[in-house]
Amino acid sequence: MSKYDFLYIPYKLIEIKNSIVSSNVNKVVSFKKYNDAEERLLLLQKIDKTPYNDIRDMAFSLNNRELYILINYLAGDDFTIDPDKVYEIIRLRFKKKFANMLWELYQNNYFKKTYVHYFTKFCNEFKEAFIELFRDEKILQFINEIVVRDDVIKFVCVNISKTRLDLDKFFNTFKISEKLRLGLDIKKYFYLYCDKESYIRSNPEVILDIIKSYNQKELLMFVENYVINVFFSELDSKIMKYILEYNKMPENREIDFFWRDVSEPVWNRCRKWYLDNLMKEHLDGPRYNFWSEYIDYIKDFNVVRRNKRNQAIYFIYFNKFVVVEFDPIGAAYIYKLDIFKQRFGPFANESSSKSDNFFKDESIAIARIIHKGKWELRAYNTVLLLLKGGLD
Hints:
The protein has 392 residues and is α+β, with helices and mostly antiparallel strands. The chain has helices spanning 11-14, 37-49, 55-59, 64-74, 83-92, 96-108, 113-125, 127-134, 137-147, 152-163, 167-173, 181-193, 196-201, 204-211, 216-229, 237-246, 264-282, 285-291, 337-343, 375-387; strands at 300-305, 312-317, 321-327, 332-336, 367-369. This is Zorya protein ZorC EH domain-containing protein.
């Protein structure tokens, strides 16, 4: 992004008061009512038969509806007559309200070279109408700068990032509708590449709506950028849940079509967030607060529901040992991983019919943590010793 020149936009332009922003800033004009095929065909045939020297007389014979049909036609890409004739008619009959219509048509057709050509001609010839539309000449200057670029989406996103602008304020100031293609593509691209601050400033619901429109490749790009740039504690819950639930977070990423293409650092962060969130959903406050401190060491967290009262057993897997917690709260048992797998492995799953007491075997446990008094301190000393390889 840094290779692009920075185009200065005075910040005060972005702080335009709501009272002077027109009520139809993001109101999308529907051109369907001006797109009757038969009516358009007859009008175009009439224009086609008219010599260029007589276009002026014809232009002033047309009503508003016919002019709107021609404006809509100019944004197409299937010209059956000389588009210069159409441009000339609209130019001769130009009205201030055409500026907004032409701008909205540009937003749905910004990638069409012919329409961009005519749109810029309108902007130059009827400058005052477009200045009135955008409320400031500098805004029109910026628009004239972007519309002729092949990389308009990237260029806009670069400037938004460099100026630290709020995306919604940018859209309002430049009368860009998020319902039209330009606005949609800007948001899609922006959230693929923006920095941490931009993610944090944005409404998570807006980001969520955008990522739901991504294809598999775009979603992968978003995950790589978002997860690695945003602090772990600031990763948004709704966004992360959508990513993980939509793609079904597996234990082994190599077996999954989506996750195998995710980089190792991003995979580890996603897996870490998944386990942390799972513990947050199931463990009570004190136990979650304690065990979440070891999230970097936890390999897995499994929940087994025991009965209709939703009592549960929780298995917290570390590299070389397993912690078994119970609901309702009771003593936690810690076992070496190999012994746990040998003794309890086949039964530590949802289909198990074993009681809580089955998993409480002091004869093979390496530690037992009673949740009373200063249990966190005792548990801390035990876990620290285990992580260092003690209690063998």
